[in-house]
Design goal:
Layout: H1 7-25, H2 31-57, H3 62-91, H4 101-122, H5 136-166, H6 170-196, H7 199-227, H8 235-253, H9 266-274, H10 277-292, H11 299-342, H12 352-369, E1 374-380, H13 383-390, H14 392-409, E2 415-418, E3 423-428, H15 435-446, E4 449-451, E5 454-456, E6 460-466, H16 476-492, E7 498-500, H17 513-524, E8 528-537, E9 542-554, E10 558-560, H18 562-571, H19 575-591, E11 601-607, H20 614-627, E12 634-639, H21 647-660, E13 663-669, H22 675-681, E14 686-689, H23 698-714, E15 717-720, H24 726-734, E16 739-741, H25 751-754, H26 757-760
Parallel strand pairs: 6-7, 9-11, 11-12, 12-13, 13-14, 14-15, 15-16
Antiparallel strand pairs: 1-3, 1-6, 2-3, 4-5, 8-9, 8-16, 9-10
Helix pairs in contact: 1-2, 1-8, 2-3, 2-8, 3-4, 4-6, 4-7, 5-6, 5-10, 5-11, 6-7, 7-8, 13-14, 14-15, 19-20
The structure holds ligand C2E and calcium ion (2 copies).
Amino acid sequence: MPRGTASKPLLVAAVSVAVVVALGGSGLLSPWWSQFVDDLGQFGAGLAATLACWLTAARHAGAQRRWRLWMGGAACGWTIGQFIWSWYQLFRDDALPSPSAADAGYLTLPVFALPAIVSLAVARPPGDGPRRRPGQLVMVLDGLIVVGALFVLTWGTTLGSVARAGAATPFAYSVAIAYPVTDLLLTVIVILLVATSAPAARGQLTVLGAGLLCLSFSDSFFAYLVSKGAESMPPLADAGFVAGMALVAVAALTPAHPAAARPAARHGRWAHLMLPYLPVAGTGVLLIVQLVRGISMDGVEIAVETAVISLLIIRQAVTLIENAVLLDRVSDSQARLTYQAFHDALTGLSNRVLFHDRLEHALALHHRDGRPLAVLFCDLDDFKGVNDRFGHHAGDRLLRQVATRLRSAVRDSDTIARVGGDEFAVLLEGGGDPGEPAERIMAAIGRPFDVGGETVNVGVSIGLVEAGEHGAVSSADALLRRADAAMYAGKRQGKGALVRYRVDLPDGTGSSDLAEALAATLRDGHGLDVHYQPIVRLADATVVAVEALARWNHPSLGPVSTDVFIATAEEIGLIRLVDDFVLDRACRDAAAFRGSWASIAVHVNTSAARLGRPEHEATVREAVRRHGLAPHRLLLELTETAPLPDLSAAAGAVRRLGRFGVRFALDDFGTGYNALAQLHALPVDEVKLDRTFTVAGGRSEAICRSIVQICTGMGVTVVAEGVESADQAVAMAAIGCRYGQGHRFGASGPLTEVAPADALDSATAPTDAPSPA
Ligand code: C2E
Ligand code: CA
Ligand code: CA
């Protein structure tokens, strides 16, 4: 419905129509004056419509201008026809010839109105693009089919006889049927267009359509009266003409308003599809009835019905073609979507999703019948630099070239995917040594690239993992993580490296397969062991103590480096379990030492972060008591991987355990946090000078000398770590360090290998026997 500025003209139009009809049909005036008012009303309405259309057309452009121009023409023609008609009726006594110039004027209306409403209906709001709305042709065909079928229906029932009766010549006959045909045509097209047009034009179209329907209604009524031989038209029947023209004027004054596009309701689309068949079915029924009643079809009926059926066939063909085109487009876009979902748009390689899927599949085959499978995880080394220096466009070109080289380096059956910005993964399923394609990739990517005339060098770091090595993997993700971990290890080694996965590679998330295995080991204690390394008096190399060192021998991984698994245990928060295991074993073993080792101390490493916790103190006391070890023979080495959270709490613990008899050492002295502050705060008995300082000569020696002086002054014993040569031992002794530990005096090993025979001879050796050495 019109809004805003349109409501005023609508009101004026309604009042005018009411006045004309009331005056003309009231019976207050004489018949001539009634007729005069009636005719004047119609003429005035027509003139108003003509002027409204043409004057407003000047203010518009495009479709809004076009439809007003056409409609103005339609209204003008009709008004002229009306003028001629009125003139004859009011001022001339002789009857208007049929057909007359008035008919020409009247029939201008449908001829011009049709392009007007079509141009209004197909007009798109600005910015909607130049596309043709699909189904427009079908809509026009539907309109024609409906018009034709309705015409056959009305013709066969009433109109035919009416037209035949009133027409003297074939021309007059054509003019007579032109009215109902054009009325019908306009009615149907208006309804169809209002139902299917763009929402923006719907307001104007509705008003204009209503106007045309009013005109058609009065027109048909008029034709009917004429056929019945009526002398004049009752004024009320002319109301349609007046109102129709008034509405045309209102439509021209109504601004087009953009409305939110709203998709046609589903049932609306179905109704639209079925629309042409209903009247056609009706004509079928009509023909059968006529056949049964023995009525034969006349020429008009046969011609129109043939046209309707031809149009129906064309409509079907058009629909079929449109559907086929649509289906093609759908399947094309479906194929495109599928491709896009599984491929990298830039390089055309597989994407992560497809790679993952292929890897899962390959892994399933590997688990079922041992098919070989390896994954390479490749990360370009200096790609960011290329992007920064030459821009993203150049970066993209480089990535495309990398993809081409990757393809040439592996077999066609291998899957290559881009899994990140400059990360690529390759799935090798053909067997053979995966190191070979990996080397080929290194060589291919190592060659210079030409990016827009610039020569660019990038390297690649590759992580390689083979399924079936280092224990089974359950999922594609786990295997990819391993390859990724190996690649990162390569990056840490300094880029451009090919690294095969090992279990002790952290995967960057703080967890690794190693962590899982270690956690399992610590839960059941199997696989952990303790080795001992002697600590000696430098003067005579007498063993005064042994340090207990944790060892882990994994059933399938083999021995794992202590530094690595200790760090892992700390990361996953299970270092306490390692410490307690070693503490218990060390106390047990030391308590059983005999002979020359009967009174030596045992050093046990303790994670410093635990110091000060009540459970730690209790554990230490209990271990000592359980194995009947003299507390002074236990010395706890405080190893530090993070700053001590609470130095005074730690000092309290050292003091309390010290009163119990247990002694303490600061391990790796000089490398930890705040070494001197710790030495000051913690009442330790020993300092273990880290091996970085114990190499002879230069600044190290000066540091060692100072530390020894400080410690001696405090009554703290110094042990030099990492003493590997005789010179080192001599140098350390020369600066006043009395004790040492290192390969020079014996590496760590199982107790049976490290201890002298008498130390373990529990049956013969007397507990307090003096050392034979
Ligand atoms: P640490 O406490 O400083 O232990 C000495 C390390 O130096 C040992 O390595 C030992 O094998 C090595 N070493 C001994 N003499 C020499 C030498 O002459 N030259 C060289 N290059 N190395 C020598 P290991 O057994 O691999 O232990 C590494 C570290 O692991 C230990 O360093 C200690 O910090 C930690 N650790 C070992 N066992 C435990 C434990 O039960 N609990 C805790 N918290 N940490 C432990
Ligand atoms: Ca230690
Ligand atoms: Ca140490």
